[in-house]
């Protein structure tokens, strides 16, 4: 599990106790019923560990849609009605990124555990403030980096931690589709998925970011970007994100010294293919230019069977476990803060025409 | 057809006349029978327009292999024996890059037309010298950028020039495999393919290059690199090249305003897939943040039938036509020089840790 | 829409009137909450046109699972409690095939409209009895041949009816997976899907069936079968069904005089591929054996975009429409009876070691 | 290796000795330079074990095409010129099926070893005559069932003989394309490939054949057929062959008790996929219908690396080895005769509208 650099620098109290007996379902409210809220509500309703207590939503059409599927569950238009309800232990916030900081802050101040959609906040300063507040309040604050619960992502992580892939040489990622325009740009919209997966896989921080943006429609809001990340150990990753591609692409490739794995999230049956490498290294006599000679031979392909569990159900289970036992969730706030920091560095690189931005020093200032 | 900036700055004489009657086959010698030479020899033998006159090769095993397949065609160990043979009109050079400049120069000085494998030379200065020499000698000098003869590459070019794709938003390319280690590094080895295809498609020069290299085995010889190119019109391309991937990847994606095309050179049956875009742009009222709203809808996919002609046979045909008629071959020396220039800029970027390198100014100095 | 031969021979009263105003949702009960029942219940709950009034289920575990997802909806263990409930207009029966006849009969006698999972009944005599009873009671009786509502199946049907495929030469179908053993054998379990799709596509009855069974485990219960059907117009179809294949296969190919279409139900993104044929027929001089010369040339492939509607939701909509307006549903009882008749002929062929069975005459006896 | 029933019944002399020293290349002539002849000639030319001595071909255009590629090798228009040439040890016959019997007979009588394209002859009586003649002359007679030399076909055979697949439950095969019309019909044209592969895999004879033909264009010459074969052990196979499908299909599936293998000859990179089965058999208490309960679970997929050797080169090597050492070639005349016998039975089934034809008894007559 990944714990970022940034949080280690904060002096946070540890969580003291679990709040609830296992036998009592958690009371949960969903805030926002737009694109992602319906998935949250459905998973809460199907969880034996949670009880759907309310929706908070001001849009009447969205509210009516909720009522058709969950007759009997109240729809509130005021957040305070939810925050003042003692039967509600936790809120799941699925509103636009710009609203995250304010809503999360109110919920934590009201004593509610919070699961908030990614990104945790729009600035690393805001993210740190929320983390410190949650720690003081002894509440769980969890960003919804759902991909770290994906069975396929976890299968790749096992290949890495079990040494099946060997030393990681490099990683590529392509995440494209016809995207809904959002005013924060494609990097903020899509790259958090790549970043959460990469940090979860590699267990180490990003130390340099280079991002070249490509903007067709509106100045300052790139729809396509190419990012090159350098991790602390020297491993590099290349990320391509775009809203402009009519074919949905969700493909990551990890090339290791022993094997290569290709993860294609759109190939529902066979998301993972492991390619055996047959490359043998031979060191030739110095007379012969001192070159390494790599013979090429490639081997078998294995497509492991991947369970079909819904990542969001696993994420909610982790959230509940964290509330009950004080455990740190896999998608934890430290990871969320780290991702926000990389996004900030990426913005800086885009402003400087793709110049490399080193990440380490920027953190020190905050810790001081 | 692409003609680079660099050559336009040189003051070259135009070719004056075709040398040979159509009815006489061109006498051709192949120089080097390693990886690529056998393909050249076989295509010459099968061409009704050429006659295979000799092989020049010092390695006895390679020479014997040639003799088994082409009994009766002489194998020479001295280049001069080929260059002094009046029945030979042209030489096809398939030797290591470091030897190109010297061998091409000798052949041109001896009055032979030359087709030389990519890259044309290892430095842009050498390339310019060869171009000027060929012009003075009134001989054809052609680098072997074979991909510009690929039927699939040309099908994509037609989609571009016919307006089927619309305005080009961006291009991605991934070219990976388990590669034979070469002391010039992966960029010099593989990127010329991407560059020749991109320049042929876009008909415009590269103005900025950013390259991040990843080196595992031997300092100074990267096996993996991520390149971001900016073309004169602002179009960007992201290229991933690697020798370390056990699965062969040859995939390029062009995303345009009307359609997207995916070209996968390993999918022999169906190398090209055209994705219809259904994206409609709507400008909302300014009150609503002045954002563009992109609805997402994607359309049909079309897999056009592509002819199965061998690109190398078409390349040799273009070489012969150029010799006979004075036409400029599609894979011309100006394109070859341009590619060498981008490789030089890419080297500079790698040395500066991925900093963006602007290409234009560097050229002026040379031309002066 | 397909109406079978058999029903034409029955003298049935026409449906007289629609029972309900559009504004009142239909009261619906689900009978059986095993494999398919949860899908029925979920779709009823999500339909604005229906109201889920009750579940009838004797298994306590299944009942508890229902209650978790649909709190407030009663679970009955006695069918009569459902049939005597006046707020219930229709029942959806998802119980084992052997129980269909008795349960459907009781429901129709109680005045309820019925949607019953395939097959309509286990014998054609039973199916005819139910059809006549529904007609006398002026009630809708609909078997759940869900595939005729699949958007991909309907896209193929449009290609056929619009003449895009041309004259149909032949059809193949493969439907395999690791199946749950059922005592009726694989033909009864899987072939109804193929039969419903083929009859819906071709709009004509089957006149001959040849079925070779392959039985590994238990005498009389084949797990694999190969069927060859001849339709009235002479079109043939080959069907492969098996419970023993570890890879799920759902593939049908229709070869027509103009184009071929491949429908792969496991390829969720791209279920349909249309292959353009370039075959030209030439009649040579009689001296030359009077043979047709077929040149081979194949053309483009088109992958049309298919909507993602859930077939079961469309099926329930058709059921509701039929109840309200008296329209004949696409998956109608006549189609259901026809399928049962072909299954009977297929059984006869298997008993005779794969001998061809002609279907027409067998029907006459019943009609007399 | 498969040796058919039929040949066991013939009383044939054994081959007595090898004719040639290993150091002397075999002198070989190719007869016929139409569709397949160029492949034979090229492979002979590239084999260090053979020397291409002549082509026999009456068509001037075909002859000229040969001369361009093999300057110096004579083209004969009279077969006798080849048969009387003492430097020629063996002939490779690639002419239409109807000519096989006469040409093979003349070659054997002239003392030449013979490799003849499939089928060995058009009737089993003719095939038997040729086999007896070759035995009397002490010459190799080999039909060209090239697929038994395919590395992918042999990989599947290894999976079978090594017990990886377990007991074979059933096999399916689909072999379709836009075919060149031939007056013998699609079964004679395409099914020999399926039959040779199936017999090579299963090592046992066919005992029953059911074939339903589908004829669109010319009475008596089906372009599509569906065959069901029963082998001696009870294993069944379903074969679909057609000339009318615009997409080339070459797919065979072997379902075994442990694993399933899919062999797709058009997927050049990954022709074989092995699917692990996770099916567990449980015998329930008799009260519960005495049914087997098969739970369904499916496992990993493995795509083994397959060597890229050209099957025809391996076939010619086997032919040469057989001539030199007296070994029986993998594609032997007994296999060729067996295939002709199954084709005859298939014709009989088609004439009787798809009735099952038992194969055993027909053979006895000949042996008597």
Structure, explained:
The structure is a homotetramer of 368-residue chains. The C terminus of chain A is likely disordered. In chain A, α5 packs parallel to α6 and α8 packs across α10. The first copy, chain A, has a nine-stranded mixed sheet with strand order 16-13-12-11-7-10-9-8-17. Chain A has a six-stranded parallel sheet with strand order 3-2-1-4-5-6, sandwiched between helices. Chain A contains eleven helices and 17 strands. Chain A is an alpha/beta fold and 368 residues long. Chain A is globular, with a radius of gyration of 22 Å. The two termini of chain A are 26 Å apart. In chain A, 33% of the residues lie in helices and 28% in strands. Chains in contact: A-B, A-C, A-D, B-C, B-D, C-D. The interface between A and B is large, with 63 and 62 residues.
Describe the structure using short key phrases.
homotetramer, 368 residues, alpha/beta, 11 helices, 33% helix, globular, disordered C terminus
Topology readout:
The structure is a homotetramer of 368-residue chains.
Chain A (H helix, E strand, L loop, with lengths): L4 H4 L17 E6 L5 H10 L3 E7 L3 H10 L5 E2 L2 H5 L6 E4 L6 H10 L3 E5 L6 H14 L3 E4 L6 H11 L6 E11 L7 H17 L3 E9 L9 E8 L4 E7 L1 E13 L2 E6 L7 E6 L3 E3 L8 E3 L3 E6 L7 H15 L7 H19 L5 E2 L1 H8 L1
Parallel strand pairs in A: 1-2, 1-4, 2-3, 4-5, 5-6, 7-10
Antiparallel strand pairs in A: 7-11, 8-9, 8-17, 9-10, 11-12, 12-13, 13-16, 14-15
Helix pairs in contact in A: 5-6, 6-10, 7-8, 8-10
